[in-house]
Amino acid sequence: xxxxxxxxxxxxxxxxxxxxxxxxxxxxxxxxxxxxxxxxxxxxxxxxxxxxxxxxxxxxxxxxxxxxxxxxxxxxxxxxxxxxxxxxxxxxxxxxxxxxxxxxxxxxxxxxxxxxxxxxxxxxxxxxxxxxxxxxxxxxxxxxxxxxxxxxxxxxxxxxxxxxxxxxxxxxxxxxxxxxxxxxxxxxxxxxxxxxxxxxxxxxxxxxxxxxxxxxxxxxxxxxxxxxxxxxxxxxxxxxxxxxxxxxxxxxxxxxxxxxxxxxxxxxxxxxxxxxxxxxxxxxxxxxxxxxxxxxxxx
Amino acid sequence: xxxxxxxxxxxxxxxxxxxxxxxxxxxxxxxxxxxxxxxxxxxxxxxxxxxxxxxxxxxxxxxxxxxxxxxxxxxxxxxxxxxxxxxxxxxxxxxxxxxxxxxxxxxxxxxxxxxxxxxxxxxxxxxxxxxxxxxxxxxxxxxxxxxxxxxxxxxxxxxxxxxxxxxxxxxxxxxxxxxxxxxxxxxxxxxxxxxxxxxxxxxxxxxxxxxxxxxxxxxxxxxxxxxxxxxxxxxxxxxxxxxxxxxxxxxxxxxxxxxxxxxxxxxxxx
Lengths: 299, 270
Prior knowledge:
The structure holds two protein chains of two kinds.
Chain A (H helix, E strand, L loop, with lengths): L2 H41 L16 H8 L1 H34 L4 H9 L6 H11 L6 H8 L14 H26 L3 H9 L5 H12 L1 H16 L3 H7 L10 H11 L3 H28 L5
Chain B lengths: L1 H26 L3 H6 L11 H10 L3 H32 L5 H13 L6 H10 L7 H4 L6 H12 L3 H9 L4 H12 L1 H17 L2 H6 L8 H11 L5 H21 L1 H14 L1
């Protein structure tokens, strides 16, 4: 093949590739890259929707953000929410997956039941939880009173509201984590358990510690990353049930970005918050990649 | 040991089902019984007809559900139509700019719609798309996640298969739709489930872009329903939640394998 022909073929391949990928590339430019750059640019300004003059604040915009009590409160609330929802839904998801994996009868039924919240409209189920958690006639408090406990003001008290939202979040996401762990468990080579038993791992706990847990490592890391990212993005339950209240106690990151940008129309400040939000997600993903790179792989 | 395991699993299942049971039960009760007989599951006086009539008439419920189906359906079709050819090009063809495209895909995996909603809103306002069904679809026509997922799938398809198709005279477009799509079907259906669940649930973007009830998707429609409500009419609200939750739940019950496998595959890759 002459060099000329080879070059022509390469050009033809490149043309075909751009015809195939061109539309997607154009959309990525329009719907992703340009908006991201716009957010970055706006984040250094005090732009307001409808106002005609914009002034450049530079890094001061971020300095303002760090002293902003609403934003700091939202970061704190989001962190607390993540710290409640992620560990609980992961541990419960793992526990359920282990129990279901060991159980032969009713396996498919249990899996479907636990998965049901994942496919139920969050806004609708949040409304149901609002009724369940109603302080006077909600079934949860009725049950608590029947058992002799005092009723709890779940969503109406600034001390409890994050816990109440976290309970809903855990209920919603445990089933998803469970099916991910189930997939991880079925991928474990059965002979490893036999080998561990020969090596003296007699109890179920020993087998879990020596085989299941290390072999599940990559799955657990993925589940942890997804759980943290999803929990950081909590919005639906807040918008439906609490609107950030009472007394700002349930204002989360996305809720304040939404308020700042689309209610108060401070698009400069909202953009700076959005950049911080992206950076937080980036940190989570970088940590995941680092752990993934360092981790010993057994497969 | 086994009895204990079953007991724990059953107790957990009851906890998970608890909200669904009360949702259905309360949707059948008159207002007075919601306040007085909260733990009684079967109503003494049935108010199902009133509650469900309110659910369908206080907002244009069928229209809202139809909007959801239309929006989610079109989004997933566009996403696959744009992503699969791009994934094929990035997996199997050599061209200048391939690395830059992949960098864009990675950027897209990082940046969620929430973070870029301000410029997207400004663009929608400028182009007059606010309060149209199109504004609910256009921002999501490209899924970088779909490109990422399909690219891995296409990479695993042997080059010989593609070379053979080419020497049979198939165009590159025909290779994508007649050879790759059937081969990547597990990935495509998994992605479809993931995409539909995500967009059926999304409240953030519709809340920003839509202010008219008849254009609402189910989550936003339910918010409109809640604000149209007078007092604590939980019977009607629960009837509305039953109606609005039912489509996806029924779909799931009829296609459980598809859902669980789909969410597992996309979950682990995402």
